[in-house]
Design a protein that fits this description.
By secondary structure, the chain is α/β, with parallel strands linked by helices. Helix content is 27%, strand content 26%. Bound molecules: S-adenosylmethionine.
Length: 221
């Protein structure tokens, strides 16, 4: 992926956001900071939201969906501990920003991302094209079923709220692999789980997040 030349007018916004995320201890990993600088968020928001691209807030995209809050994207990315060359599954492509950040971190690895709205598949693909990203594969479908065609995965990230982690996703995770998801009804806990030879183990849990719901066969009840 070539280095993307960020327009000067957005430099202050990116720098201020990074300082804020560091001060609030959401951003601690230099590789994730580098991803944030190289994959500027303003390239993934609709024109009407450009002035707010570097606010630490979720923003509307289309089909009543959102690009997630930067602090949440950073936290999920850091907890997922992505390594070079890994194969990642993301459920809920939305704008493609999270997929692009993961793509940056996996290097020669691959990101498979499933989205249920055709309009968002197109929006994300157009956004990813600006960076010549060729290791993100956006798939139209019901992500609550996972994407068994490319399984098993080293890491799985669900970017929409679920009542419980869909079973097909646990099946599609490699042994020792990590899965992160917002779990809960009116408010969610961010949960990081590891699949071990002895079963599923909770690694981290942090409460009070608000995500749009995961739909589909194994989605929110
Ligand atoms: N990761 C996105 C980004 O960086 O812009 C934000 C994702 S948004 C918070 C959640 C997304 O999950 C929405 O785009 C929504 O359409 C999608 N979604 C919800 N249920 C889904 C399902 N069953 N399969 C695939 N996508 C789903």
């Amino acid at each position: 992926m070539g280095k993307f030349q960020t327009e000067k007018k957005y430099h202050t916004g990116i720098n201020d956001l990074i300082i804020h995320l560091k001060n609030s201890k959401f951003l601690t990993d230099d590789r994730v900071e580098s991803a944030l600088r190289n994959i500027p968020r303003h390239e993934f928001v609709p024109k009407s939201e450009l002035d707010y691209a570097y606010d630490n807030e979720p923003l509307p995209i289309m089909k009543n969906q959102t690009i997630s809050q930067p602090g949440v994207v950073v936290r999920m990315t850091e907890w997922l501990d992505v390594k070079d060359g890994q194969k990642i599954l993301e459920i809920g492509t939305g704008s493609g920003w999270q997929s692009a950040i993961l793509s940056y971190l996996v290097g020669k690895g691959d990101v498979y991302s499933v989205e249920r709205h055709p309009e968002l598949v197109k929006f994300a693909q157009e956004n990813l094209k600006k960076f010549n990203i060729d290791n993100v594969h956006v798939i139209l479908g019901d992500g609550s079923l996972g994407y068994s065609e490319a399984s098993p995965y080293d890491r799985i990230i669900i970017t929409a709220a679920c009542s419980e982690i869909p079973l097909p996703l646990l099946d599609q995770l490699k042994e020792n692999g990590l899965i992160i998801a917002p779990v809960g009804d009116s408010s969610q806990s961010l949960v990081l789980l590891q699949k071990t030879s002895k079963g599923i183990v909770e690694i981290k849990n942090h409460s009070k997040y608000a995500f749009v719901p995961l739909h589909g066969k194994f989605g929110k009840k």
